[in-house]
Amino acid sequence: MTDQTSNVTEVKAESRIFPPPAPFAASATISGMDAYYALCKQAEDDYEGFWANLARENLHWHKPFTKTLDESTAPLYKWFEDGLLNVSYNCLDVNLQKGHGDKVAVIFEADGGEVTKVTYKELHHKVCQFANGLKSLGVGKGDRVVIYMPMSVEGVVAMQACARIGATHSVVFGGFSAKSLQERIVDVGAVAVITADEQVRGGKHLPLKAIVDEALALGDCEKVRNVVIYKRTGGAINVLEGRDIWMHDLVANQSDVCEPEWVSAEHPLFILYTSGSTGKPKGVQHSSGGYLLWAILTMKWTFDIKPADVFWCTADIGWVTGHTYITYGPLAVGATEIVFEGVPTFPNAGRFWNMIEKHKATIFYTAPTAIRSLIKAADADANVHPSKYDLSSLRLLGSVGEPINPEAWMWYYNNIGRGNCPIVDTFWQTETGGHMMTPLPGATPLVPGSCTLPLPGIMAAIVDETGHDLPNGQGGILVVKRPWPSMIRTIWGDEERFKKSYFPEEFGGKVYLAGDGAIRNKDTGYFTITGRIDDVLNVSGHRMGTMEIESALVANPLVAEAAVVGKPDDTTGEAICAFVVLKRSRPTGDEAKQIATELRNWVAKEIGPIAKPKEIRFGDNLPKTRSGKIMRRLLRVLAKGETITQDISTLENPAILEQLKQPL
Ligand code: WT7
């Protein structure tokens, strides 16, 4: 743990308060704070009973569970374990039975603007056919399947098809490199990879299948028997006879009936890799029953989802937000959702506003980084200013992935919500499966920049380094004191790391450590997240481990040593700043710039473009203590361009600071 945030004692006071609009509150699922407190009380009075009732009411069980929570192997908690269900059945068949077969499930808009609408009945057919196709390849319950696909109906179908046959999917974001993809394929032991020929972003075609080929050629992927390819662009690719098969050929003669595989509620639905504080990404393993329950409840509570809503979450299926709020949550509640391919700035920075207008989106959920970049774009070009679009269909806005600064919040509230739409600032993590702290749109008075209060049943608290509760107004470490149904089950293949990372002994081994610092307002008790307390950065809402980037840098033959820190950035929240020592002498001038470019591209190749350092500085050495430990807190100050005022008496080589002060 670093010294970054644990001693935060105040955050800038924010006094603006926005109560829920009366018409919204009147028809909301959770209407008014009394209703919220009543639910919290139910959870406090009878924790297991609270969850058991919700699980019975909200999920279709093939065989009901008899035990709600098993804590005997804590922190390996088990929820509803002897209950049998199928996630895809709960997302699709249940809606057909309710007579919603002809309702549009997905409105898909491609990068070029082409729109495809898929009803629940059609989606069910596609999923069943693809599930049967996977079965014909010998994929079955418990197998792992890596999905490396563009945003598409087929991406959602692939995930749902895995769920239908009890295969555990692991989606890898299409921006990751061949090396990152290979590491995940190997770690998860995939038997198949589902991909596309290419992906399209901002009018550009980018390879996917070629990267899969490259990943598999890196070795240790012998378990992969098949690669299934969705034809997105028709671009030229290699098809390896016997291993590779086109998706359309695979489903061509498959029945559109596929009996679901009934699995235990604890069956792993998916494994999703995320960055931790060491070099190796963690395979976060999620369950089926508890996970889906929370996806459904948060759709109802946080998003107040109603039958007439058109829900739009702009995330990619490669991240957890895309799992819970694209592939599973919206479908499990029978909503109509928008899925988009591309980027918010193509064909122009009005893409989001145009799509909201065109498809009459009612709920819009995006990341602060996107909002901030669209504010800049709207300031620069009046034609893409939201005032040019009819956004009157909107009734609710959401934010996710990183803290939203009050300025961006106000702009979002006034320009997109036109002062009528509550904003739900949802704090959660890959590990939590769904929202943890968020305003309830029909209940919670909003304060810009605060994720306000935990959802009912989520026992969030702020503690000090020894695990003791801190009073409101004092910053500390965010923990969750009781297990909840959608929590991470383990790190795939590494139970020890799971325990150490999330349930450390210093805190008694039973409280969940989120990895974030937080502070509660003295008067309202509202939570504000103050940032990660480990060596994890948040760049554009994406989690990046500093050690992962450092390992990539030192793998370059030129590099002797590297230290990576975050620095505040107007658009991306945090930006990656790398301090590098080369094996040769320290470069200066144009040569330094040229090597920096080379190293940035190297990192893109090693991890993916999202991990490219924004800035690189070269030194003869790095600031270290006498015992050789890199003093990152000093590097953070230098990266910000500030003067060091901290104690540097333990620093062995103070002269180095002068060298590292200047950007290239
Ligand atoms: C980390 C989790 C949540 C799904 C997408 C990101 C930060 C997330 C907020 C928020 C302040 C936030 C935290 C967290 N974070 N949402 N509303 N306010 N910080 O999931 O990649 O697992 O990242 O994102 O630091 O720990 P993730």
TrEMBL record:
An MF annotation (GO) of this entry: ATP binding
Start and end residues of each AMP-binding enzyme C-terminal domain: 548-629
Modified residues (N6-acetyllysine): 629
CDD domains: ACS
Residue numbers binding Mg(2+): 554, 559
Required cofactor names: Mg(2+)
PTM: Acetylated. Deacetylation by the SIR2-homolog deacetylase activates the enzyme.
Protein name: Acetyl-coenzyme A synthetase
Gene source species: Undibacterium jejuense
Recorded name of the encoding gene: acs
